[in-house]
Amino acid sequence: MEISVRPSKFFGRYRSSPALSCARSGFSTLHAVLAAAVSFYLVVISDLFKDGACEELMINRKSVLSDTMFGISLGYFLSDLAMILWFFPSLGGKEYVLHHGLSMYAIFFSLILGKAHIYVLMVLFSEATTPFVNLRWYLDNAWQKSSKLYIYNGMALFLGWLVARILLFIYFFTHIYLHFDQVKTILPLGRYSLAIVPPVLALMNVFWFWKIFKGMMKTLSKKRHTK
């Protein structure tokens, strides 16, 4: 009996339906809120990574909560990547595959070695922009591109992206530079990963930020002309 690896007719219809994208957006929003909240708590509120909080090097500090969050994020990115590849390119192009692949690599490497948790958490906090992206998709598919909510969400997305994916990454690289003596204690593969993965993600963030900026300006321009 031959087993086909192609999606069935049912999934073929599902591919053209927004139902799968809707469910995927819901899960991604849930993960984003959880990841951002846990990352903010561990990095900013708790004493885990504060100078002088303990004798352990900052690069080696971790907690049960950070390990748990990394496990959850690995599961989410893996399942989402599987859907992207199965329905490729309906749910996202090559840039999404690259983003998820790099994210899983960094999280897995940090989880296994028990090092650089602070830097992975910083990157995970950038997921805080995901709910705005998903809301934009919902409004777009609901034919609400001319609504005030769509415009306000676009502006919030622009500001959120600026803070969580541009300015935060500047702080990220500055922090690595100031603590490079600790970064050097990681295995060579870990150092090379820190030198490659974050810059690639940062370049992708800048590229998407430019597209968000152009889209926001286009929407605001249309809004002014319709008045």
Automatic annotation (TrEMBL):
The keyword Ligase does not apply. InterPro entries: TLC-dom, TLCD. The chain crosses the membrane at residues 30-49, 70-92, 104-128, 149-172, 192-213. It is a multi-pass membrane protein. Residues 17-221 form the TLC domain. One of its GO terms (biological process) is lipid homeostasis. Keywords: Membrane, Transmembrane, Transmembrane helix. It is found in: Membrane. This is TLC domain-containing protein 4-B-like isoform X2.
